[in-house]
Amino acid sequence: MPQTKDELPDALYRAAQVRELDARLIAAGTPGFELMQRAARATWRALVRKWPAANELTVLAGHGNNAGDGYLVAGLALRAGWTVRVLAVGDPQRLQGDAALAHAESVAAGVVVQGWQAQSELRGVVLDALLGTGLSGEVREPYASAIKAINAGGLPVAAVDIPSGLCADTGRELGVAVCADLTVTFIGMKVGLLTGDAADHIGELVFNDLQATDEIFSDIPVCAQRLSAANLPALAPRAPTSHKGRFGHVLLIGGDHGFGGAILLSTEMALRGGAGMVSLATRPEHVPAALTRVPEAMALGTSSANQLMGLLEKVSVLVVGPGLGQASWGRALLSAAANAALPQVWDADALNLLASDCVQLPKDCVITPHPGEAARLLGVSTTEVQADRPAAALALSKKYSAVVVLKGAGSLIAHPDGRLALCHQGHPAMATGGLGDVLAGLTGALLAQDMDAFDAACLAVWLHANAGMQQGKFGLGLAASDLIPAIRQLLEEQAPCLK
Prior knowledge:
Blueprint: E1 11-13, H1 15-27, H2 32-50, E2 56-61, H3 65-79, E3 83-88, H4 97-108, E4 112-115, E5 125-129, H5 143-152, E6 157-160, E7 182-186, E8 189-190, E9 204-208, E10 224-226, E11 249-253, H6 260-272, E12 277-282, H7 287-293, E13 298-301, H8 309-312, E14 317-320, H9 328-338, E15 344-346, H10 349-355, E16 365-367, H11 371-378, H12 382-387, H13 389-400, E17 403-406, E18 411-414, E19 420-423, H14 435-448, H15 453-472, H16 483-494
Parallel strand pairs: 1-8, 2-3, 2-5, 3-4, 5-6, 6-7, 7-9, 10-19, 11-12, 11-14, 12-13, 14-15, 15-16, 16-17
Antiparallel strand pairs: 1-10, 17-18, 18-19
């Protein structure tokens, strides 16, 4: 996963917006070449910090401003005594404006510039200055071959602004993309650096605003908000006279034959997430296990939807879907839930049944699809969802008038009013079953404690991802239940129970 720090900005932008910010900086009196020099110095500083013992640099340069940054970094490295070589993939004669000035300054300083060939040898630290944020279509030759050579070289790789071949707006790999160990990005944080395929490509992420002032950002709407410990919504502290009736009653519905564990994970998380009371409606055969695993929850063996009716009048939040199945039992229980005028979290098979038009989603819902479920809900392919995850999350939110959590690397939380939040934390060890069940239960618990649906989803996703990051440090074999005590601890650190 990308190694990011809290000094990264929370505001995320699309590539066109960052280009507008760049233009505003220039219009406000900072020459474009000065901005390019600032970017080069920021890249050079980050590169030296990352590889303090290095003394050789190979720059692969294209023919845009990204290449201009690379030529200036080459000059800085040469002056520092490094062995430096630039391999020009794009014809230097095509450079214009500030990039042409950067090339001229680099050559005048003594930097050796050669044309890139398929057999060109890469040495030392490799600096990717090939393609910038303007790329939208698939990478073409000769850039595709150059990127493949970088990735096959086994050398340390730094990328200027964005790894070449990665879409700045979506995080999608455009055919082929550089796998960098370090990415230094500028002015405004691009949303595509934190979702989609980005985690496989950016390495350590460093941001430099190039001295842009707050005025430059005025009236440019934020594309998405990066979730961080500093901007998370928080539960209110509890009064000393608090009692269970003040913190909601969550009813979790699911666990058909063969899937009892899923709903028990959700139930345990709802309890540990602070809900005042927790009830569980599941197959009668699963009640003994529920009483053993979570005796604090009130377990109702449910054979038909009619048995739910009295309980639905007593609870405040529903979590529906974990282990629900798509057979008649699950369909009947989901239909009963859909007719209840309560805040709800729908996950797993509840979403698959929703996609098949078996039921209508009620108001005030949070839905938590993974990309495959999102594709079914939108009637498109999973590939199309992953090609533009921010757009898919917003489209789902508008279609169902619900808060949407689009799970995956760089999880997104979308509101029907257009708000979009992004959580880039997590760990590859989280690629295991049951984690979605934990997230659903946690979201339900936060809703029960009177959190707004969007805020509850944002806090739940952040807690879930950061608990996974903590537990993932122990290596493979992460179990979904490992997250529950870690989430409880993080929740207390983020929103203490007492003042």
